[in-house]
Design a protein that fits this description.
This protein is 40% helix and 24% strand. It contains 16 helices and 19 strands. β9 and β10 form a beta hairpin.
């Protein structure tokens, strides 16, 4: 393949490493600068979730560059949500109607290291311990500080793509130097990671093939399985008030809170006090950026452009889909970045806005609605209507997780479907009470004019 113009990526996380694979395989000279040390050679401090949910969109992006066979080794399929009540009773709510509709727990560092290796194999070069302090968009100069040591230097970036996450230094430079408006909506809730260790012999101490949820209304606990038999546990809770992370700092409150709200989980977390005190409390929010590119020379991609809260399991999947869409834009326009970047933003912005809204809505569903009999009735009816009207009625969660139609289309169709479900279940407590012929007619009337869901 003939050599293409060099591209500089800032950020070697999941999005940056996968994008490096895409660009290097196109023949571009790709150089990646990353603030943290190389996680393949150094232990990285805790702070970000160590495992994530991989779904159809992310799988499609990985498969396009031939990586899924390797990624498959890192995955644990999760068939649904295992709900835990206060008495310790559990019930499994499937994610989809068919056995193939599952999502996968995957190690963040394991996947990130695999992607780095693949990018280097494709020809990308990585520089670690490089913190961005400023970007001059007129001269395409990036100012960096080496860590540790503090040596300051600058590079000529050429074409620059920022994949440096929700706290993007490039986005901050766009705000300072170009007046690009940025809104960062912090959630009043935060998160803390804990661990359920593996059983003796390395087995899992709860159902392995499920995402476990302890829904408690205004807060919740979740747990995802790891390959070593452990579970990564995350507490989502208000930052202030009662209950809150601030309240749990008071003597005795942590044990009291867990013994009251999550007694079965407490019995499985032997190092609760140590983990809670030593692990950071993470903030969550949604980033809205007025413009994602500058003069055809710089682009924000992934969380740098549109960070979202984690409650739909789509942050990584959305960023991977960004990589795929950018690659498709390159197929149409070659190296004409002045066309590639604007088209990318036009395509992805409405979808980023849609999944940001759906992620916030899914938080309420996970921590509260899953306990509501009406929610469970509508979920059961949704599966039935999907079976009776294939390609026409598809539950919104399934459209997001198991299909690749645009997020904005999934949200639009989901709103129509919710109106149908609300109408059909008004005053109803059992699916057997519903006139299915009437239900099918409503589906055809409302959704029949739309393209089938693929």
């Amino acid at each position: 393949m003939s050599a293409q113009a060099p591209v500089t990526l800032l950020g070697a996380g999941l999005a940056g490493s996968l994008l490096a694979v895409y660009l290097a395989r196109r023949g571009h000279e790709v150089v990646v600068y990353e603030r943290l040390p190389d996680m393949r050679r150094h232990e990285i401090p805790a702070g970000r979730s160590i495992n994530l949910a991989l779904a159809h969109r992310g799988i499609r992006a990985l498969d396009t560059v031939g990586l899924m066979s390797e990624v498959q080794k890192l995955l644990i399929p999760m068939r649904g949500r295992m709900l835990h009540d206060k008495e310790g009773a559990t019930s499994l709510t499937p994610y989809g109607r068919t056995p193939t509709e599952v999502i996968y727990s995957v190690s963040r560092p394991g996947l990130n290291m695999l992607l780095m290796d693949a990018a280097e194999k494709a020809g990308a070069r990585f520089h670690f311990g490089q913190r961005v302090t400023d970007v001059d968009f007129d001269s395409s100069q990036v100012s960096l500080v080496e860590e540790p040591g503090g040596r300051r230097h600058s590079i000529h970036a050429g074409t620059l793509i920022a994949t440096d996450g929700g706290g993007s230094a490039v986005r901050q430079a766009m705000l300072r130097r170009r007046g690009v408006k940025v809104v960062e909506d912090l959630l009043p809730h935060a998160y803390k990671e804990l661990t359920i260790p593996a059983a003796a012999g390395g087995g899992h101490r709860m159902e392995k093939h499920a995402l476990h949820i302890w829904p408690r209304g205004g807060y919740m606990l979740i747990a995802l399985p790891n390959l070593d038999g452990s579970f990564t546990v995350t507490l989502f809770l208000a930052r202030e008030g009662a209950p809150s992370f601030a309240k749990l700092e008071e003597p005795g409150e942590l044990q009291r809170f867990f013994s009251t709200e999550f007694p079965d989980a407490l019995a499985l977390i032997p190092e609760l006090e140590r983990d809670f005190r030593s692990h950071p409390t993470g903030l969550m929010g949604t980033v809205h950026t007025e413009r994602w590119h500058v003069d055809g020379g710089t682009l924000l991609l992934g969380d740098a452009a549109h960070a979202i809260v984690p409650f739909h399991g789509q942050g990584m999947n959305c960023a991977f889909e960004d990589c795929l869409v950018l690659d498709e834009c390159l197929s149409r326009h070659g190296e004409d970045w002045g066309k590639v970047f604007p088209e990318f933003e036009v395509q992805r912005r409405p979808n980023a806005e849609a999944i940001a809204a759906m992620a916030l809505e899914n938080y309420v569903e996970m921590r509260d609605a899953v306990r509501d009999p009406k929610f469970m009735l509508q979920k059961k009816l949704g599966f039935l209507l999907e079976e009776r009207n294939p390609g026409m009625f598809v539950p919104r969660y399934s459209m997001v997780m198991f299909h690749h139609l645009p997020y904005s289309d999934a949200r639009h169709r989901g709103a129509i479907q919710q109106r149908i479900l609300d109408s059909l279940t008004a005053g109803i407590t059992d699916v057997a009470q519903i006139d299915l012929a009437k239900a099918d007619a409503a589906v055809r009337a409302e959704l029949g004019g739309l393209d089938p869901v693929r």
